[in-house]
Prior knowledge:
Strand order of the largest sheet: 1-2
Order of helices and strands: HHHHEHHEHH
Largest sheet: 2 strands, antiparallel
Number of helices: 8
Radius of gyration: 42 Å
Amino acid sequence: MKTNFPFRPFLIATLSVGVLVGCATTQPTQQASGPTEAELEAQRAQAAAERAARENQQYMSQANQLLGDANSFTGLNDDQKTRLADAEAAIANNEGRRAYEILSGLVSELRASKMTYTVAGGDSLWRIAGKSEVYGNAYQWPLIYKQNASKIRDADLIFPGQDFDINKAPSRSEVDAAIAHARNRGAWSIGVVEASDKAYLSR
Length: 203
């Protein structure tokens, strides 16, 4: 049976409209562009620099505290003085970690090597130096004299109750100089500051 409905032209027209609508509604999606690898690397470098700056500031703060502790000790030997100077230079150059590492070791060493001795009746510098808990060698008494020169007017006259700072880790050169002075001091008398003692203190 024939139909008068123009089926083929209608079908073509419908398909054409569908194609046109599909073309109109289907747009290619565009992904949002992120930072480039170079930009990411720059961000990482900046974050690392900021972390390093914060860490350095923390080390600088700790180093300055330790520097105050180190400067409170007297009678540093030559090696200790050199390390202290190196730490001060590192602080001046804003090298916090290096300054902290030098000073933490130095202060620990100084704390372990220092002691305070309270003079008892009958004591002399010779007798104190000879004690096992001090030097175990009486000839090293000039070390005590030199370190406590502000408290001792005459090396042959000390008083009970005086507190002497003792550096238990003197350098080899300091020990040699002390022993040489003790052996070659010459005549002495109580109440008089011998010229040889003055010469030893000035070295």
